[in-house]
From TrEMBL:
Protein name, per record: Protein GrpE
Organism: Loigolactobacillus bifermentans DSM 20003
Lineage: Bacteria, Bacillati, Bacillota, Bacilli, Lactobacillales
NCBIfam families registered for this protein in UniProt: PRK14140.1, PRK14162.1
Any one GO biological process: protein folding
The protein's role, per its UniProt record: Participates actively in the response to hyperosmotic and heat shock by preventing the aggregation of stress-denatured proteins, in association with DnaK and GrpE. It is the nucleotide exchange factor for DnaK and may function as a thermosensor. Unfolded proteins bind initially to DnaJ; upon interaction with the DnaJ-bound protein, DnaK hydrolyzes its bound ATP, resulting in the formation of a stable complex. GrpE releases ADP from DnaK; ATP binding to DnaK triggers the release of the substrate protein, thus completing the reaction cycle.
Biased amino acid composition, Low complexity: 28-49
Primary gene name: grpE
Ranges of compositional bias, category Basic and acidic residues: 1-27
Length: 208
């Protein structure tokens, strides 16, 4: 009977040696499990900086694209404004050209008018001279009328107050009698305007 009890106790209560053996057998499994979990944590730690780096790169790309878009828009607006300015200048220049159309032709005709006036100023005594002068007068009147039709008009000068914008003083004389200073006393060459533009200033003598 004593032997049976001893065997039961041995079976039911393992010895310290057996417990140590079991502990040693269990330890590798726990270490293996911990080792298995460790790479997962490291992988998570490694993935976080990469994700942040990709986000920063996307933000940088977005900022660069936005800046590029703003630059294109600015260039477009500037180009559009420049085109509008060019169109405005073109319209103004066209209006000016139409307004003063024929200016060069009128300038070329003025010396002809001067020569006709000189011819008309010559005194004649015979009939042939009178006939010739009458023909010159007809040509002169026709040219003068044509110039007026195209708004080419003579500048008022005789006895007018000197105006440097439309008169050119080539000589000065002393004031006489009741003359006022800066009064034009003689016209040496007539001046003409095309609308509001001076084609040629009048050459005058001014009393001072």
């Amino acid at each position: 009977m004593a032997n049976d009890n001893t065997d039961k106790q041995a079976t039911e209560f393992p010895s310290e040696k057996d417990l140590d053996a079991q502990t040693k057998d269990a330890t590798p499994d726990s270490a293996q499990a911990a080792a298995t979990d460790a790479p997962t944590a490291d992988a998570q730690q490694q993935a976080t900086p990469e994700t942040a780096s990709e986000t920063d790169q996307l933000k940088a790309d977005l900022a660069a694209a936005t800046q590029k878009s703003d630059d294109f828009e600015d260039k477009y607006l500037r180009a559009e404004a420049e085109i509008q300015n060019m169109n405005t200048r073109f319209k103004k220049e066209r209006v000016q050209l139409l307004k003063y159309e024929g200016q060069d032709l009128a300038k070329d005709i003025l010396p002809v008018i001067d020569n006709l006036e000189r011819a008309l100023a010559i005194d004649v005594s015979d009939q042939n001279g009178e006939q010739l002068k009458k023909g010159i007068q007809m040509v002169y009147d026709h040219l003068e009328r044509t110039l007026k039709d195209h708004q080419v008009t003579e500048i008022d000068a005789q006895d007018a107050t000197f105006d440097p914008t439309i008169h050119q003083a080539v000589q000065t004389v002393a004031v006489e009698g009741d003359q006022k200073p800066e009064t034009i006393v003689k016209v040496l060459q007539k001046g003409y305007c095309l609308k509001d533009r001076v084609l040629r200033p009048a050459m005058v003598v001014v009393a001072q």
